[in-house]
Amino acid sequence: MIHTVHARKEVILSAGPIASPQLLMLSGVGPKDHLNDKGISVIQDLPVGRVLYDHICFPGLVFALNTTDVAFIENKGLTLSEVLEWLRNGDNIFASPGGVEAIGYIKTHVSDDPDPTVPDIELIDIGGSFLSDGGLGGSKAIRRGMRISEALIDEAFGSIDGKDTWSAIPMLLHPKSVGRLELKDSNPFSNPKMIGNYFTVHKDVETFVAAIRHIQRLVQTPPFQQFGAKLYNGHLRTCREFEFDTDEYWECALRTLTATLHHQIATCRMGPENDSLAVLNPELQVRGIKNLRVVDTSIIPRTISAHTNAPGMMIGLKGADIIKHFWNIS
Question: How many CB atoms sit inside 10 A of residue 183's CB?
């Protein structure tokens, strides 16, 4: 059924960094050539989806432990007694969201940002690893969510799958590689095409390798060695031409096991008048369209040293203030 809805003041689009640009382009607001190619009438020629930044991570740096029952392992921890203890005390393995015990930030030696306070890598300290949901009875949800081949994992990490492990997953905060988002077709029920272009700029590889070396040095310290933490030689079959633990090997591994953390931004980029890639003005209004705003994380114009949840909340609050001020609403 087709419904027509009229807005008295304006339309606010808050569908997120994937669906907001998709809806704009389906409605005729986007790159002229791309919309023409999909048979969509162009209302406003704007660079919607031309910029896509994302936070990617590498889960394949796994350290085996020689101590048992210290890591989070799904098929051991998801028991009735553990659930009851958490409900009573709120302080056991269930208190770590997603198994994350800590988050840290580092600035690698390859960073080209002149500000010494700006990190280029986030370290996600897991009370286990991406193998913690494996083993007998494990859900294997993490690897499925990361779209990692089960055969690849079995071959490289099978002997420690579901065992006591530790990892600090490095996340690239400020990628130099820039992706884009496009329509698959003019059908609103089709998913859009997301072209990440990961590692098209080699600097991103160098930053990841520097982070891997930092983590390896970290593991050599006494707090980790008391658990016998040792880098597991999960030699990926895609990288057998390279010697394990060389920079060349890690580059190959990165191109094999990298996953998104779903922090997409900039697809409806906000910017000043002279920004040729901006879709919105600083008031979050779509350029050239009256009474239409976008208010979500798609407006973030450049990479940030954070996850996008809190910035998304801030954008909603600030956007509400902008709209109330514009319409003189107290």
Answer: 24
